[in-house]
Design brief:
With 260 residues, the chain is an alpha/beta fold. It has a single domain, classed as Phosphopantoate/pantothenate synthetase (Rossmann fold). It is built from eleven helices and eight strands. The strands form two sheets. Strands 3-2-1-6-7-8 form a six-stranded parallel sheet, with helices on both faces. A two-stranded antiparallel sheet has the order 4-5. Strand 1, helix 4 and strand 2 form a beta-alpha-beta unit. Helix 3 packs across helix 10 and helix 4 runs parallel beside helix 10. The longest helix is centred in the middle third of the chain and has 20 residues. It is globular, with a radius of gyration of 17 Å. It binds adenosine-5'-triphosphate and magnesium ion (MG). Adenosine-5'-triphosphate binds next to helix 2, helix 4 and helix 9.
């Protein structure tokens, strides 16, 4: 790993790149993962690489909806596990829900590799301090987060081929799905099954962002860390206006000139 000085203005972004490069080398990412990441970086630059106000509201709303769900699940792909895996394990422990590895370009090798990385992350989180406000046996709670995906025994109707595979204890029976970095087709299919789909996507104009129930327009690792804080003190869901939230993100982007 190349050492990046603490004061470097692009430190967080460069470290995320290094993590992605390392994960690609280990065979954990699809070939197109770097392209998706680069597209995200471009939007993040325009947002000022910070959690904007409308994203903070979307984060609180997401935490509230996860708390209120009957059968919540967190669906993750390679980029998400690599960039935000540990905070999503924390979030799953707080909510008490499974994490399902579900890939657009599914291979058994990559699913296996991501599940074992998540298993290591779960062990690390279990040995860490509990989030502030947590009462109870944190270690046991974390170690009991189910990590699903190796045996997909369910399906997402409306999709065909390997992309339709999912787990019956995860996405199939879920009423609320948190799915960072989802593809537009799958987001639409999950919505048409009547599920609430909560997404994290830096592009406010993607089909995913526009179709989701709640869209957090933020970088996945920043959003996951804020979700952990928000889930510890979650309120109740509101009547959410997602279009307004997307418009606010777009207006921050179109005001990016003020960053100069
Ligand atoms: P859609 O399928 O929803 O129309 P798309 O095909 O344009 O979107 P994909 O390639 O499916 O995009 O997914 C990549 C998306 O993930 C992009 O919109 C990109 O902005 C977003 N993205 C990439 N990296 C991150 C990240 N680290 N945090 C948040 N979002 C990200
Ligand atoms: Mg897509």
């Amino acid at each position: 790993m190349v050492e990046i000085p603490d004061g470097h203005p692009r430190k967080a972004s460069l470290m995320a790149r290094q993590r992605m490069v390392e994960a690609a080398r280990m065979g954990l990412l699809a070939e197109s993962a770097m392209i998706a990441h680069g597209r995200g970086e471009a939007y993040d630059y325009l947002l000022g690489e910070r959690t904007i106000e409308s994203a903070s509201r979307a984060i609180s709303e997401t935490a509230a909806r996860l708390h209120e769900a009957q059968n919540p699940v967190i669906s993750v792909n390679g980029n998400t596990v690599v960039l935000a895996g540990k905070d999503l394990v924390r979030l799953a422990a707080i909510i008490g829900c499974p994490i399902e590895v579900n890939l657009y370009y599914r291979t058994d090798e990559r699913i296996g590799g991501l599940l074992s990385l998540l298993g290591e992350q779960r062990e690390e989180v279990a040995s860490d301090f509990a989030p502030s406000g947590w009462v109870g046996d944190w270690r046991n709670r974390v170690l009991s987060v189910p990590l699903l995906g190796s045996e997909p025994d369910g399906s997402i109707s409306g999709l065909e081929g390997p992309r339709s595979l999912c787990c019956s204890d995860g996405i199939e029976r879920a009423d609320v799905v948190l799915v960072p970095l989802e593809d537009g087709d799958r987001c639409e299919a999950l919505i048409s099954l009547g599920k609430q789909v909560l997404v994290i996507d830096l592009n406010p104009l993607s089909r995913t962002a526009r179709n989701a129930t709640v869209t957090i327009v933020d970088e996945v690792s920043r959003a996951a860390s804020e979700l952990v804080k928000s889930a510890s003190e979650a309120g109740s869901p509101t009547e959410w206006d997602n279009e307004l939230c997307l418009r606010e993100a777009l207006s921050v982007i179109s005001d990016a000139g003020s960053l100069i």
